[in-house]
Design goal:
This is tRNA N(3)-methylcytidine methyltransferase. The chain is of the alpha/beta class. The protein has one domain: Vaccinia Virus protein VP39 (Rossmann fold). 25% of the residues lie in helices and 21% in strands. The chain has 12 helices and 12 strands. Strands 1, 2, 3, 4, 5, 6, 7, 11 and 12 form a 9-stranded mixed β-sheet that branches. Strands 8-9-10 form a 3-stranded antiparallel β-sheet, with helices on one face. Helix 5 runs parallel beside helix 9. 44% of the residues are buried.
Amino acid sequence: MNTEEETKHETSSSSNGVDSTTANTGEADKKRESSSRDVNSPASAPFGGRILVDESAVFEQNAWDHAAWGEEQVQHAQKEIARQSLNPVPTELVEMYHAEAAENWNKFYAKNENKFFKDRHWLRIEFPELFQMIEADAGEKNVMEIGCGAGNTMFPMLIESKNPKLFVYACDFSSTAVDVVKNNPEYDAKRGKAFVWDLAGDDIPPEVEPESMDVLVLIFVLSALHPDKWENAMNNLYKLLKPGGLIVFRDYGRYDMAQLRFKKNRLLSDNFYVRGDGTRVYFFESDEIVKLFGSKFTIEQNAVDRRLIVNRLRKVKMYRVWLQGKFRKPLAGGTPGAPSATTVVTSGDNEEPDVDVDNSLSLDTPADSPKPA
């Protein structure tokens, strides 16, 4: 299953309250810089060119980077979480949702087969390491997109690749999603391989050799797993990566708008929800990510992306929160947890990328989930 945000819930922008009339921004709003900020460098110079300085100007554009949360936002979030806890998923239905997780993802893909492919242009900004793999002289490289959905990372890499020795694996919990990938005209069995695999399973997939991956892509995937399965996931990621290999990670942050909008009978357990289509989602804190990945990997980036999305027509403000990280498997004798010599800190000058990237609204959002029922 892919579990990725877009994961599966790459529906229309209007599904999260952003009118199509305001979803597209002008040339001045196009983003060409990272919008994530290292959680250990709160005083760092922010990336992204859309910083809200004057609150009276909030509705002058569609999105603002590094949206600061005041006491009002915090109290609102806590109030919504308290409201949800009063009416959780009925006990007799909880196990049903867990047992039917794979089938619910299959149903999602069957229903939305041609609606959720999205070229993640923002990958080139946030995870340039991925695109080092496609250079002509990069040599033999293996990349694996876990929770591939429609192949939103696989196909852009293969299409742009100049590296004849690049091979991209794509796997998903959902067999229907894997069929979508295989049926894509760009799918080439000589350059990539798609297959069904559960990241939360007991072992790595037989299609892949242990310690053979240079980069693992984990985007809006971990949040779909039951918290009891996180340790299995970490073990599998460790087995897949070469020593020195990298995980690129992005997922939902605590108090993201998508979390606060859930209505009654959607809370499975603390910060873990079931959507109206039966798929599940967890909302993380940075400390949880550090604890999970820091037990086995070197933490090269631990960042948060706080975005204020506005609907200028309806005068509505929506706060998004995503977490982002880069985690490297230590070389022999290396120590997990502590930042390495290549730690990425989102501070100082940021060199503008060579490509023209339209990342004006958000990173694959706010089309990441349907309206919670």
